[in-house]
Design a protein that fits this description.
It is built from 7 helices and 4 strands. It is of the alpha+beta class. The chain has a single domain, classed as Winged helix-like DNA-binding domain superfamily/Winged helix DNA-binding domain (Arc Repressor Mutant, subunit A), CATH 1.10.10. Helix 1 crosses helix 6 and helix 1 runs parallel beside helix 7.
């Protein structure tokens, strides 16, 4: 069993089910870790409303999360040059590095815990979490290398 891949899955599914409970352990407020990770994974700039829709947050909640991430220096906001009414957000280099360090640290820690369960139990746990996540969000997510690809099911 690849415990690091299992750890990646566990982190993604746990964040989706608990809206960031592992993010709190990563020194980010609840909800900030998935937002920062998504921005880092996607790269480039994104409209906050679209980001909220993708991650299942309300727009006011997304605004609070982005305010906090901007204050920490992990995200920047700017007005769209083509339409000054639109705002675009992106991860800063500091945010990208922070997300990578925290992600690597979290994966290693959870992988160690999963290895203590043994291969069969760890695989069963991840399988159950995948099913719970799919049922909760009415979709199947494929997780590979820290990237999420969503398919409506």
């Amino acid at each position: 069993m690849d415990y690091e891949e299992a750890a990646r899955k566990l982190i993604v599914y746990s964040q989706g089910l608990a809206k960031g409970s592992l993010g709190t352990a990563r020194s980010l407020a609840v909800g900030e870790a998935p937002v920062l990770q998504y921005l880092c994974d996607e790269g480039g700039e994104m409209n906050p409303s679209l980001l909220a829709d993708k991650l299942g947050y309300t727009r006011p909640r997304m605004t609070r999360i982005l305010d906090s991430l901007v204050a920490k220096g992990y995200v920047t906001r700017r007005n769209d040059e083509n339409d000054r009414r639109k705002v675009l957000v992106s991860a800063t280099e500091e945010g990208i590095q922070y997300a990578k360090r925290q992600g690597d640290s979290s994966i290693a820690a959870v992988a160690a815990q999963l290895s203590a369960l043994g291969s069969d139990s760890a695989a069963e746990l991840v399988s159950v979490l995948e099913k719970a996540y799919s049922i909760t969000y009415d979709r199947e997510d494929v997780v590979s290398g820290g990237k999420k690809k969503r398919r409506r099911g």
